[in-house]
Amino acid sequence: MKIAFIGTGVMGTGIVNNFLKNGQEVTVYNRTKAHAQKLLDSGAKWADSAAEATLNHDFIFTMVGFPKDVEENYFGPKGILSVAKTGQILIDMTTSTPTLAKKIAATGEKIGIGVLDAPVSGGDIGARDGKLTTMVGGDLASYHKALPILASVSKKVNYFGAAGNGQHAKMANQIMIASTMLGLAEWLTYAKASGLDLQETLDTLSAGGADNWSMDTYAPRILKGDFQPGFYAKHLLKDLRIALDEADKLQLDLPATKLAEQLYAKLTDDKGLGDLGTQAIIKLWKQWA
Amino acid sequence: MKIAFIGTGVMGTGIVNNFLKNGQEVTVYNRTKAHAQKLLDSGAKWADSAAEATLNHDFIFTMVGFPKDVEENYFGPKGILSVAKTGQILIDMTTSTPTLAKKIAATGEKIGIGVLDAPVSGGDIGARDGKLTTMVGGDLASYHKALPILASVSKKVNYFGAAGNGQHAKMANQIMIASTMLGLAEWLTYAKASGLDLQETLDTLSAGGADNWSMDTYAPRILKGDFQPGFYAKHLLKDLRIALDEADKLQLDLPATKLAEQLYAKLTDDKGLGDLGTQAIIKLWKQWA
Question: Which residues form the signal peptide (chains A, B) (predicted)?
Fold first, then answer.
């Protein structure tokens, strides 16, 4: 079984490393070749374009930055769909739009190619440790074929039905996380301004009804002044914009998600801090600037 | 050691029951006597006012609804401070304002009475099981004297320093919870409108970075259509108003908390649903009305 993997950022690198460790044959392509060098040193092969990576491979994965990058890698002149053939299965792991996922799937269906959207949660550590949570949408036959390979890098793989539904599930995840991050930033700021011992307050909140994963993960980093990305602020902003765009299509008002989008836009677009981790949202308050 | 307990709502009843089980002598007072009847049947004594309950007791607890009720029970004509004497320790477990906690403590200090603010988290189940998380502010000597009795109904007791700091810590807790509830309501609504399987989505989100106590506790109730109160929506609204008022005094802008206050006000004041549990916030979306 031959795997092509397009996009060797932090997430892609972690996943490909696990494929290689499991003895899979992997070809990689990335816009910046230097970022793929470690994988090439570990035995991955190089392709000069998404199209070249696609040729003669069974599973073609993409995990790139933004929906426009997904679009280009699938529909561009040297893109996957310029050469893909019946029998191949295309899997987009990027957190991208449900609408684009449906478009790729519809195109694939016309030419007999299996297409799945399979965004993940679990971050860089989940990718490195092969313990991602993978949310899949697309045709069921392709899902069954892809399941062993997805399971090999995941602790949990869930199938959500039609194309785009993997992305919808991921959006639900990001909507939850965004509000949690705001609550975390606001209580830490309130507690600091009130003169409370922050570690003591954190220990207390963690023991009860306020407990959550984001707090357990990011509050200690904030207290140490560590704003490095586990997950980029600019990527959460992208995700929230996708969620709000989809919500618009569903005629849904999501005021907390909208507020989170505004605050992450302030951090990313106005303050230029989008390359920090999502916990840097707290820098919007002068107590932490 | 003789305990007076003023306020026999769900929380107070749970706590007093544990005091009685531990063999303590407890006198109770409540605005509506009928709500104290079960405790009287279990061996608690009755007092006709807060003042009467205070006389000849070592620890005088209050756990009532709103700051105005706290005010009345302490400063009213038949209130605690009309009769309290040196050596007694007064402990307010109501989630109330840090400002009022400081006022009671300052009054107590003048006449040699120990005063603690000791709001709790853990809800009705925590109260029933003696597993509250108790956040204490006030003078250290009184804290040390009260610790054994507080610990007897708590899984965790934390001391936060000066009077009002227990309330500040509780506010931090409520700020965190409020945003979590909004995120929960928004993802469930988004997922429902997108046509996802909600149980499957919940299972997926619980396994990763979106996990939190509110979701684990309330999402299953929402999916069953159970909007009964673990914690009253109207009480969370009260808490958020206290938090925002204190934040104003600290010149802090807390937009997510403000949004939560607006939405819980809509639920409680506009729709008259404040006697439902906090999870009823999701009823603001027509998908759940």
Answer: none
Q: Give the tens place of pLDDT for each residue, A22-63.
A: 999 999 999 999 999 999 999 999 999 999 999 999 999 999
Whether B248 maps to a domain, the answer reads yes
Note whether residue A153 is domain-resident: yes
Model confidence, pTM:
0.95
Contact A194 B135 (CB under 8 A): no
Q: How many CB pairs under 8 A join A and B?
A: 237
**Does the annotation mark A131 as catalytic?**
no
Query: Is A175 close to B187, i.e. CB distance below 8 A?
Result: yes
Q: Do residue B17 and residue B108 come from a single domain?
A: yes
| Same domain membership, residue A115 and residue A55 | yes
Residue A136 in any domain: the answer is: yes
The answer to whether residues B158 and B189 belong to one domain is: no
Q: Is A172 on the interface with B (CB under 8 A)?
A: yes
pLDDT in tens, A183-242: 999 999 999 999 999 999 999 999 989 999 999 999 999 999 999 998 899 999 999 999
Among B110, B131, B162, the domain-final residue is B162
Task: Please report which helix (H) or strand (E) contains residue B210, including its range.
Answer: none
Q: Say which of A182, A197, A285 has its CB closest to residue B179.
A: A182
CATH classification of the domain holding B238:
1.10.1040.10
Q: Give the distance from residue B152's alpha carbon to the nearest chain A alpha carbon, in angstroms.
A: 17
A265 in contact with chain B, both atoms CB, cutoff 8 A = no
Q: What is the pLDDT of residues B50-77, one digit of tens each?
A: 999 999 999 999 999 999 999 999 999 9
User: Closest partner residue to A190 among B172, B211, B217, by Cβ?
Assistant: B172
Same domain, A145 and A230: no
Is the same domain home to B147 and B132?
A: yes
Q: Is residue A289 over pLDDT 90? A: no
The residues of B carrying an active-site annotation are 170
Which residue in chain B is spatially nearest to A243 when comparing CA positions? B190
Q: Are residues A243 and A279 in the same domain?
A: yes
The answer to whether B255 faces chain A, any CB pair under 8 Å, is: yes
Pick A172's closest partner by Cβ from B122, B175, B196. Answer: B196
Measured CA to CA, the distance from residue B233 to residue B178 in angstroms comes to 10
Within chain B, which residues score under 50 in pLDDT? Answer: none
Distance from CA of A65 to the nearest CA of B (A): 20
- Whether residue A23 sits in one domain with residue A68: yes
CA distances from A76 to A7, A79, A80, A164 (A): 15, 5, 8, 21
Q: Which domain holds residue B279?
A: 168-284
**Are B195 and A169 in contact (CB < 8 Å)?**
no
| Domain presence at residue B289 | no
